[in-house]
Backbone:
């Protein structure tokens, strides 16, 4: 299969290209950019006039709900959603049922994903057996089975000695550890940011210090153990400052934020909207603005969808009893573009945060359009407005705080390994 | 008299003077009320009329006031009245002769509600009705025992009792 | 959607359709409730304490959290309005979750309910229910989590108006566990809307949320300083479980520093009144000599509570 994508504006942040270039694809790889290679005859030509052609998006956190939660979402539905959102590589957290703590489970997931022939799935292994926080997993074995990093997802790891050993052990094999900083005891029973809104609505709260004290611990343990640490879903201005200072002092940690936290704040909870019940909690507008600035100045390395499909029964409950999370795979691109437009961030920089930079954190060869690379790419119309309607999302998770919002930027084609995995109707 | 369905013009058929109606009402009541008669005005216009009657008749028993909002039969249709007043019956109604006072007698539903209120306070010896003006259009078997006068209005019209700063009463016509 | 999205307790005409919180209620509606309640106080003093207003209406008391007192006052209020009252205590212990709130409500709606009186341990549960009931059903919040207890807040401001007449020259102190108190939040919103110029909250730092100043109140940690020259002292109930956890050292120490006794009450204005939502912990937040003293209006509060609930029910049922 040979595909020509012509007349598009090619943006490839890694190769520093932003120009009108045609892309030539053969045997799943990019064979040329710009001029056609000798003897190239396309089986299919995609006219990208007026559109942008960029590397397929790399999403650092998407819950696919398999294994264990197929009633909420299936690999099929979520991989379709990924492709509809232009996402061609995604990392999935280990909080499945059972958790990803055995090589067999990881191999099964990789196998299931491969047979679907959609986006590429990069499992993140469980740091401790069953995510129970006491016994380390066989990280080296799990890495060989396909895990790219290890984390504790959103399950509290309360024992700092276990965390310390886990980081030492991971460092032994140079395996990255991904941690979302939150002190479980300071966050106990909390469901919303300890601010104006939680005070008014009487919602049990999670103070910023739950994030910052845990972050301080992680930064110190990282220095002590030499572990490669990636910080997931930072939510507060203070946490961004701490990362900035730690980097200044020589730390090599990376970090990401969820795309929802760039646009929403505690105010959006309104009258107890369970769709704004997220982990970490939506914080103040000041915090949100700090995350946006941090992403622009690259203190924050990447932005992810933090895709969490939740079924209606689990959302239609009183706020504190509802299950946290929002669907995100199909919204990552338009919400990133919205941030860029509002904060005057250039398109190549914005796209870098969801392609090149995310791929670097994952340590995978993706997120660029170099000749010879896998032909994972995304064609989108940056000017096209569309209305978020839960029923029209491909994800089985219809839980979104953006219902009814007009967003700009819609994917028209997604290619994975040179195959058209999604095409807008 | 105007034929039904042919509303009289307020200019050609001006409303009677409320003060004259009050004087006529007073003339009718003077010979029959005793010192123990309970006078009860229905909010809001009826209270104004009752205050004047109460003072002019020299009655010893303090004036009573009634708000019938909690007993109205149009609650289902229009909800609770916006400006509910307090009912105040500063005397025992049991065995007493009572005179209810209202400004405009129309369907009779307000009087029905007022009687229900009174019976939740006790068992009066008798209840009579005094109205400043009767505009016809009764929907219940109610009639006034003492009446200032009659007027004829179309269904689309209503009349309101006004009290100015000098306590002078007058009638005002509304086209709905 | 027939409700106003900016304030889901009001209908499109701006009238009260549900009573979920006192926050954001227009002052005219607050006054209408207080004035109507005043008329009902007269009714509750008669021999026949019933009016026919809600004849034939079905009022469901749905209590997901146990409370005999509040349920009883709502029941009395509904019966005095001639409504049919059905009491449902729904067991939601953490072990047996059972059917969801919305399933329960859907079932009861199918029984031709006209009004739901809802108490729930989770903040926002009445909002959730109000969002999902049909347009003919009214929801009244009888206390949700730490969020709101609007009829309690209303009866408190009713008592304050009854004794003090005017809000615009009052200093009110609310004392105790502000953090967990839906009563405190309701009082603060009602007093602010009615024009009370100075509201103080008094308690240890562990029981006062840092952001409470955003509601326009002054924070005091020293009770003696906070009570100085106030017109109204509103004591909050300290839940028993709070005395055991990490928020407080002991009931005794709390009483010593934040309990109201005659000596501390003497710092307030001589004609200051004392409120308490009940049930009281004598010797924990309030001394018996204050609770039973001449400045206490705690018992009148209870009878005002019935008039307030009659007023709220008859106003929403008519809208």
Residues:
């Amino acid at each position: 299969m040979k595909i020509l994508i012509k007349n598009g504006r090619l943006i490839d942040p890694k190769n520093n290209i932003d120009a009108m270039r045609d892309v030539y694809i053969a045997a799943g790889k990019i064979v040329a950019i710009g001029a056609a290679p000798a003897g190239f005859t396309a089986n299919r030509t995609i006219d990208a006039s007026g559109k942008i052609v960029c590397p397929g998006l790399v999403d650092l956190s998407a819950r696919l709900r398999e294994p264990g939660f197929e009633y909420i979402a299936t690999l099929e539905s979520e991989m379709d959603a990924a492709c509809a959102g232009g996402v061609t590589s995604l990392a999935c957290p280990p909080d499945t049922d059972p958790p990803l703590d055995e090589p067999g489970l990881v191999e099964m997931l990789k196998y299931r994903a491969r047979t679907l022939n959609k986006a590429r799935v990069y499992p993140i292994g469980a740091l401790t057996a069953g995510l129970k926080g006491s016994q380390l997993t066989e990280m080296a074995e799990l890495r060989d089975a396909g895990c790219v990093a290890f984390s504790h997802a959103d399950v509290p790891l309360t024992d700092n000695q276990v965390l310390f050993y886990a980081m030492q052990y991971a460092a032994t094999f140079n395996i990255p550890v991904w941690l979302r900083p939150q002190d479980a005891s300071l966050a106990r029973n909390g469901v919303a940011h300890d601010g104006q809104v939680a005070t008014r609505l009487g919602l049990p709260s999670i103070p910023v210090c739950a994030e910052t004290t845990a972050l301080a611990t992680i930064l110190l343990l990282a220095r002590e153990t030499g572990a490669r640490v990636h910080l997931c879903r930072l939510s507060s201005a203070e946490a961004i400052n701490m990362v900035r200072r730690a980097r200044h002092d020589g730390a090599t940690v990376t970090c990401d934020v969820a795309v929802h936290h760039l646009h929403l704040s505690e105010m959006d909870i309104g009258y107890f909207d369970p769709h704004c019940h997220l982990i970490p909690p939506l914080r103040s507008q000041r915090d949100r603005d700090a995350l946006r600035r941090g992403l622009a100045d690259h203190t924050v390395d990447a932005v992810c969808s933090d895709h969490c499909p939740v079924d209606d029964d689990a959302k239609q409950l009183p706020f504190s009893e509802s299950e946290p999370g929002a669907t995100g795979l199909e919204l990552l691109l338009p919400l990133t573009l919205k941030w860029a437009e509002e904060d005057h961030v250039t398109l190549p920089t914005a796209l870098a945060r969801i392609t090149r930079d995310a791929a670097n954190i994952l340590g995978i060869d993706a997120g660029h359009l170099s000749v010879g690379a896998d032909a994972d790419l995304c064609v989108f119309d940056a000017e096209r407005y569309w209305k978020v309607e839960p029923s029209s999302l491909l994800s089985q998770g219809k839980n979104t705080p953006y219902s009814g919002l007009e967003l700009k930027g819609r994917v028209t084609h997604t290619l994975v390994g040179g195959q058209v995995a999604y095409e807008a109707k | 008299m105007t034929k039904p369905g042919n509303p009289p013009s307020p200019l050609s058929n001006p409303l009677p003077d409320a003060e004259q109606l009050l004087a006529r009402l007073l003339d009718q009541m003077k010979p029959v009320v005793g010192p123990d008669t309970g006078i009860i005005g229905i909010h809001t216009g009826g209270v104004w009329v009752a205050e004047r009657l109460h003072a002019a008749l020299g009655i010893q028993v303090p004036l009573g006031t009634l708000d019938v909002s909690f007993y109205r039969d149009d609650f289902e249709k229009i909800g609770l009245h916006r400006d509910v007043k307090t009912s105040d019956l500063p005397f025992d109604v049991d065995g007493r002769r009572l005179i209810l006072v209202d400004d405009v007698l129309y369907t009779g539903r307000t009087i029905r509600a007022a009687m229900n209120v009174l019976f939740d306070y006790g068992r009066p010896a008798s209840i009579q009705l005094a109205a400043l003006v009767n505009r016809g259009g009764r929907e219940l078997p109610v009639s006034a025992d003492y009446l200032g006068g009659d007027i004829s209005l179309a269904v689309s019209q209503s009349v309101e009792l006004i009290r100015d700063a000098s306590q002078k009463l007058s009638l005002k016509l509304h086209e709905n | 959607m027939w409700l106003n999205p900016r304030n889901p307790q009001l209908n499109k005409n701006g009238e009260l359709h549900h009573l979920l919180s006192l926050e954001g209620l227009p002052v005219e509606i607050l006054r209408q409730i207080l004035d109507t309640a005043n008329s009902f106080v007269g009714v509750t003093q008669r021999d026949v304490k019933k009016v026919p207003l809600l004849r034939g209406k079905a009022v469901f008391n749905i209590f997901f959290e146990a409370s005999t007192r509040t349920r009883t006052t709502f029941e009395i209020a509904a019966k005095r309005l001639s409504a049919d009252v059905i009491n449902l205590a729904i067991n939601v212990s953490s072990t047996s979750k059972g059917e969801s709130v919305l399933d329960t409500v859907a079932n009861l709606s199918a029984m031709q309910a006209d009004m739901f009186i809802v108490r729930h341990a989770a903040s926002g549960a009445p909002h959730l229910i109000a969002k999902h009931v049909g347009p003919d059903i009214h929801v009244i919040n009888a206390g949700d989590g730490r969020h709101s207890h609007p009829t309690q807040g209303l009866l408190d401001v009713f008592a304050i108006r009854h004794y003090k007449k005017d809000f615009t020259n009052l200093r009110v102190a609310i004392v105790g566990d502000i953090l967990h108190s839906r009563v405190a939040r309701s009082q603060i919103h009602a007093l602010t809307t009615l024009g009370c110029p100075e509201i103080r909250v008094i308690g240890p730092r562990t029981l006062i949320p840092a952001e409470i100043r955003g509601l326009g109140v002054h924070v005091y940690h020293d009770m003696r300083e906070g009570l100085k020259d106030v017109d109204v002292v509103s004591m909050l109930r300290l839940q028993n479980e709070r005395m055991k956890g990490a928020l407080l050292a002991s009931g005794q120490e709390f009483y010593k520093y934040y309990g109201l006794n005659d000596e501390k009450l003497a710092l307030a204005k001589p004609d200051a009144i004392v409120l308490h939502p009940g049930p009281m912990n004598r010797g924990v937040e309030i001394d018996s000599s204050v609770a039973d003293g001449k400045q206490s209006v705690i018992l009148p509060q209870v009878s005002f509570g019935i008039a307030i609930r009659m007023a709220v029910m008859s106003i929403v049922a008519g809208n």
